[in-house]
Design brief:
It is built from twelve helices and eight strands. With 250 residues, it is α/β, with parallel strands linked by helices. It has a single domain, classed as TIM Barrel (Alpha-Beta Barrel). It has an eight-stranded parallel β-barrel with strand order 1-2-3-4-5-6-7-8, surrounded by seven helices. Helix 1 runs parallel beside helix 12 and helix 9 packs across helix 11. The mean pLDDT is 97. It binds 2-phosphoglycolic acid. The site of 2-phosphoglycolic acid (PGA) has 13 residues, from strand 8. The site of 2-phosphoglycolic acid has 13 residues, from strand 8.
Length: 250
Amino acid sequence: MRKKVIAGNWKMNKLPNETIDFIDRLIPKIKDTENEVVLCVPYTDLFYAILTAQNTNIKIGAQNMHFEEKGAYTGEVSGQMLKAINVDYVIIGHSERRQYFGETDETVNKKVKSAFANGLKPIVCVGESLEQRENGEEKEIVTSQTRLALNGLNNEQVQNVIIAYEPIWAIGTGKTATSEDANNMCKIIRAEIEKIYGQNIAQRVIIQYGGSVKPQNAKELFETSDIDGALIGGASLKVEDFEQIVNYNK
Ligand code: PGA
């Protein structure tokens, strides 16, 4: 049985004092969950988040990293730096980074490798745009993004990757993919991993859905066969909403 991984993606939101307050309020509400709880916060909140979540079941993640360890890359933060302050997870290749910051399948792959080299767990985002969906290209897009992101990883690494299937047309729009559609896409991603790495490994990979997940639709999505949790933007900014999603099975 795969564990559910429920990860918040705060994007460019919340100051340190809001971070501390959020986590302090979340801790008692989710302390008994069997689900893995992750908060991916802005760089400037990471240290506060880690201190506040210390000795709890909340794991902290970053939203991006550079693939080099150090050097002349003004404004960048490396995997080594994240690990040094006890960050556990890192989102890689979010569609907003692919769209606005020139992230490519090649840089995603380099970042995934660097994340593993530094002991971080990558949450790799894949997903098609509205246009690609309308052209019927969604399967081709997500399988190719998945294949290229995992290129050159060993079996141990592949089974520890988290893939977040996030159709771009569902992000921040209030439009969720139906649970059947989202589950089918997650199945297609798993089948692609199986084709290359075999069934044993493919069955272990956590595949999340992301795109307007909220308390009202979380349970239905999570009760499907191949959706192993979610990457949550908007609804992860409110303790009450995020807590309800984490506790969907309570
Ligand atoms: P959303 O964002 O939940 O606000 O749609 C999801 C994401 O971008 O990871």
